[in-house]
User: Which sequence fits this backbone?
C-alpha cells in the first residue's frame, strides 16, 4: 500500500504528464533499429521477430524485385494534363499502362480519399508487459463520416464515460470501459467498428484486489450523508481552504497529522480519500454483477438497511474525491496523470460519482430512506427515449404501454417500477454493457400485460440472448449471433438491440432464448488479429503497396462489383424460417430458399461483422497483390472451407481448388475476368491461400445480406460489410486485409431502396 501511495503522490505532482496530451499520442523519440523492427528481406517485407506466437501475415510484394525501396521524393514537375476527379478507367485518359509514377502523382491518383488504417498498442497501468490494449484509428478519407454509429441516434450515450473530462471521447483509449462503447457499434445494424474488432484482441489483466490501507472513515448517520450530498449539489467549497478541510475531516475522515501538518491541500486530501476507498469492504463496481447500481438502493426495507447505508457512504466519499480531482485548482496535467494511474476499483467509484453529479440532485431528505426525495435531471429525456424506442421497435402492446408510461410519469412513480427502471430514468448508469438491458427491462416492466412476467430474466450476465413477445416479433441483442445475422431485415438497431425480427415456432408465445455459439476457429489465422498484425496494419493495407521510389501503373487496376441488370437475378434468396433448438441454451439456424431449393445454415460461430470505413473520391485503384475472388450471394452456399489451407500438393502439382468450391467452373467471375490484377474466378482459384478475400455481392433484397452473414456464422468467418455507395470495393478489400479477415460483403442501400 505504501507503493500505491507513492504512485498517487507522484501523479499529483505538478510536473508535466508523460501521458498522452489531450488524447493525442506524443511522438516517439528517435531510436536505433532493433530486432523487432520491420526489415526488407528479398522481395517480401518481414518482421524479424514476432511479438507473440501466431500466424505470420504475408507482406505485399511488387512484380519487379529489383526496384529500390524507400519512398522517393515527390515529383512536383509531373505534367498535369490529367484530371484528378473520380476515376472511371485505369489507366486514366492520357496515361500509358507502361508509365511509372513518382510518389506525388501516385498519391493523387491512387491514395486520394482512401481511408488509412493504423493500429495502436498501449500498455496497461499497474500490469506487466504481457497485458496490453489494442486500438485502431483511421484517417485520410477527407470527410466527416466514420464507421461508428451516432451515439444520440442509437441511444447509447450512457454506455461510455470519459473520466478526464465531460463530453464524448475523441480516441477509444480515453474511455473508462474497455473496449470502448463510444467506438463499438457500426453504422449498419448488426455491425461493429474496426476499432472494436481490434480491441477484442486486447490482453487485459484480471481484477486484483487492493490491500487494506488501514485507514477507516468516521462513522456517519444516513441523514448526515444526505445532508452532505445536498451540499455538494452546489459544488465543492474549494475557494475556502479551511471550510473544505473541516467538512472533510470533521465529518468524514480522520486527519492523522492534524496537529503537526494538517492535510489542507488538494493533493493530501485526494490521497486520504483514495486510501479510504481501497478498503475491501466497499462495493466493487468492477464486478459485472454490481454494475446495475440501483439494486443496492431500490429496496428501502429494514432488511436492506446496511447495504443501503454502505452504498450512499461510498457514493459520498467517491463524490468528494471526484470533485477534488476535477477542481479548477488541480492542474490538468496532474489530473490526467493521476486518473491514468488509479486502480480500476477507484476509477469505477469515480464513474459512479460522475453519473450522480451529472444527473441527480437531492430534493429533500430525512433520517430514513423513505424520506429521501431525488430529482432526476434526465427523466424527461429518458421518457422520450423509451417512447421512441418502443415505437421504432414496433412493440406489440404499444398503446397500453405508452399509456402506462404517461400515467407513471404524471404520478412521479417511474423509479418505483423496478431497479432497472430506476437506473434508466435516473441516469445512474455505469458505462459498459448494462444499458441495453436497463432500457429493455424498463419497457417490459412498464408494459401492463401480464405476459411480460415471462420476460423478467433478461440480464447482462447473459448478453447473447433474445425473446419472443406475443408471437408477433422477436428481439435480439446486438451481441448475439442471431441479432447480427438477422439485422439487415430488421427495422432498426437501437440501444444495443436489433428488432423487430421474424417470429419463430420454436419459442413459446412469450419466451426468452439464450443463444449458444462457439468461438470461431483460429487455426488458419483468418479469424483473429494479433498484436503483431495490429503493429503492421498500416503497411499491410497501404493503397500504394510496399514502399518504392516509383509505382508502375500496370500494378494497379480499377475493380468493381458485377451488377446484374435483371432485378430477378438479385431476388432469388428468401428466408424461410428461423429455427432454435433447445434445451437450456439454444442452437440457432436459418433456412433459406434459393432459386427453389432449401438451404439450412447453422449459426454455429459467434463471428463479427465490421462496418467498412467510408472513402471519398472513389472508386480507387487496387494494388495487384490484394488478391480476391468475387461470388454472387445465391452461389455462396457452394463455397466451403474458405480461408483454410488445403493439404500440401506433390511437388510440381497445383493444389486442388475443390476444398474451396463445389460449383462448376466459370460461376462467379469478377469484372474483367482473371486478367485483372488481384482478381481470381472460382475456376482458377488455387487452394491454400489463407489471406485471399472472398467478395460476396449481396445486392438486392436484404435476405441476400442475411444469407451472406449466416454463411459466415456457419463457417466461422468474420467479415467486412461495405455499402458500395459509401465505400468502394478496393477500400473494402484493403480494410479486410487490415483486419485480417477473409470475407467482404458488398451491399448497395441506395440502389436497393430505389429498386424497392
Assistant:
Amino acid at each position: 500500500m505504501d507503493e500505491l501511495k507513492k504512485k498517487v503522490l507522484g501523479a499529483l505532482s505538478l510536473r508535466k504528464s508523460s501521458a498522452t496530451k489531450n488524447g493525442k499520442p506524443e511522438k516517439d523519440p528517435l531510436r536505433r533499429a532493433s530486432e523487432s523492427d520491420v526489415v526488407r528481406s528479398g522481395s517480401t517485407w518481414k518482421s524479424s521477430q514476432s511479438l507473440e506466437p501466431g500466424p505470420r501475415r504475408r507482406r505485399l510484394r511488387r512484380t519487379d524485385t529489383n526496384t529500390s525501396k524507400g519512398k522517393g521524393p515527390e515529383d512536383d514537375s509531373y505534367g498535369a494534363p490529367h484530371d484528378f476527379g473520380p476515376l472511371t478507367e485505369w489507366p486514366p485518359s492520357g496515361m500509358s499502362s507502361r508509365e511509372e509514377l513518382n510518389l506525388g502523382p501516385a498519391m493523387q491518383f491512387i491514395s486520394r480519399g482512401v481511408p488509412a488504417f493504423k493500429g495502436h498498442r498501449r500498455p496497461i497501468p499497474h500490469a506487466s508487459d504481457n497485458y496490453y490494449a489494442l486500438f485502431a484509428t483511421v484517417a485520410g478519407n477527407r470527410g466527416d463520416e466514420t464507421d461508428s454509429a451516432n451515439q444520440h441516434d442509437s441511444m447509447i450515450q450512457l454506455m461510455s464515460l470519459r473520466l478526464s473530462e465531460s463530453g464524448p471521447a475523441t480516441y477509444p483509449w480515453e474511455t473508462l470501459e474497455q473496449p470502448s462503447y463510444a467506438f463499438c457499434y457500426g453504422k449498419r445494424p448488426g455491425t461493429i467498428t474496426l476499432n472494436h474488432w481490434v480491441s477484442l484482441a486486447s490482453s487485459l489483466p484480471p481484477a486484483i484486489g487492493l490491500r487494506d490501507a488501514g485507514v477507516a472513515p468516521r462513522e456517519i448517520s444516513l441523514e448526515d450523508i444526505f445532508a452532505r450530498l445536498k451540499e455538494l449539489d452546489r459544488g465543492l467549497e474549494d475557494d475556502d481552504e479551511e471550510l473544505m478541510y473541516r467538512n472533510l475531516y470533521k465529518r468524514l475522515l480522520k486527519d492523522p497529522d492534524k496537529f503537526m501538518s494538517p492535510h489542507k491541500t488538494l493533493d493530501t486530501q485526494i490521497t486520504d480519500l483514495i486510501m479510504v476507498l481501497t478498503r475491501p469492504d466497499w462495493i466493487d463496481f468492477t464486478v459485472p454483477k454490481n454494475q446495475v447500481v440501483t439494486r443496492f438502493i431500490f429496496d428501502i426495507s429494514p432488511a436492506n438497511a446496511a447495504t443501503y447505508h454502505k452504498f450512499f457512504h461510498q457514493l459520498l466519499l467517491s463524490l468528494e474525491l471526484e470533485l477534488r480531482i476535477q477542481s479548477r485548482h488541480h492542474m490538468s496535467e496532474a489530473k490526467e496523470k493521476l486518473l491514468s494511474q488509479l486502480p480500476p476499483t477507484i476509477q469505477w467509484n469515480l464513474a459512479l460519482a460522475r453519473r450522480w453529479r451529472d444527473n441527480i440532485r437531492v430534493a429533500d431528505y430525512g433520517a430514513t430512506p423513505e424520506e429521501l426525495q431525488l430529482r432526476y435531471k434526465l427523466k424527461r429525456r429518458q421518457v422520450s427515449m423509451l417512447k421512441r424506442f418502443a415505437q421504432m421497435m414496433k412493440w406489440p402492446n404499444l398503446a397500453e404501454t405508452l399509456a402506462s408510461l404517461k400515467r407513471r410519469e404524471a404520478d412521479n412513480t417511474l423509479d418505483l417500477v423496478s431497479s432497472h427502471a430506476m437506473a434508466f430514468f435516473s441516469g445512474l448508469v455505469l458505462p459498459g454493457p448494462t444499458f441495453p438491458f436497463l432500457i429493455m427491462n424498463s419497457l417490459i416492466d412498464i408494459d401492463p400485460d401480464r405476459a411480460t412476467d415471462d420476460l423478467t430474466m433478461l440480464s447482462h450476465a447473459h448478453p447473447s440472448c433474445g425473446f419472443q413477445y406475443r408471437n408477433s416479433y422477436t428481439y435480439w441483442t446486438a451481441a448475439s449471433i442471431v441479432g447480427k445475422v438477422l439485422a439487415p431485415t430488421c427495422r432498426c438497431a437501437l440501444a444495443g438491440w436489433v428488432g423487430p425480427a421474424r417470429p419463430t415456432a420454436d419459442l413459446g408465445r412469450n419466451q426468452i432464448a439464450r443463444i449458444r455459439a462457439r468461438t470461431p476457429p483460429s487455426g488458419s489465422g483468418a479469424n483473429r488479429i494479433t498484436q503483431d498484425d495490429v503493429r503492421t496494419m498500416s503497411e499491410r493495407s497501404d493503397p500504394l503497396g510496399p514502399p518504392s521510389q516509383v509505382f508502375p501503373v500496370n500494378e494497379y487496376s480499377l475493380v468493381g462489383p458485377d451488377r446484374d441488370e435483371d432485378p430477378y437475378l438479385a431476388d432469388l434468396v428468401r428466408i424461410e424460417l428461423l429455427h432454435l433448438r433447445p434445451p437450456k441454451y439454444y442452437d440457432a439456424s436459418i433456412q433459406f430458399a434459393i432459386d427453389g431449393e432449401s438451404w439450412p445454415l447453422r449459426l454455429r460461430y459467434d463471428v463479427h461483422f465490421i462496418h467498412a470505413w467510408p472513402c471519398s473520391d472513389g472508386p480507387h485503384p487496387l494494388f495487384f497483390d490484394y488478391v480476391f475472388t468475387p461470388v454472387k450471394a445465391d452461389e455462396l452456399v457452394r463455397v466451403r472451407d474458405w480461408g483454410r489451407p488445403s493439404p500440401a500438393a506433390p511437388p510440381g502439382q497445383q493444389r486442388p481448388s475443390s476444398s474451396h468450391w463445389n460449383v462448376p467452373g466459370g460461376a462467379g467471375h469478377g469484372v474483367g475476368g482473371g486478367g485483372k490484377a488481384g482478381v481470381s474466378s472460382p475456376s482458377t482459384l488455387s487452394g491454400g491461400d489463407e489471406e485471399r478475400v472472398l467478395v460476396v455481392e449481396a445486392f438486392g433484397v436484404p435476405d441476400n445480406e442475411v444469407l451472406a452473414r449466416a454463411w459466415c456464422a456457419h463457417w466461422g468467418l468474420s467479415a467486412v460489410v461495405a455499402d458500395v455507395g459509401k465505400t468502394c470495393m478496393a477500400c473494402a478489400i484493403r480494410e479486410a486485409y487490415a483486419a485480417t479477415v477473409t470475407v467482404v460483403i458488398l451491399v448497395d442501400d441506395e440502389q436497393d431502396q430505389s429498386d424497392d
In short: Confidence is low (pLDDT under 50) at residues 12-54, 68-81, 647-677, 680-688.
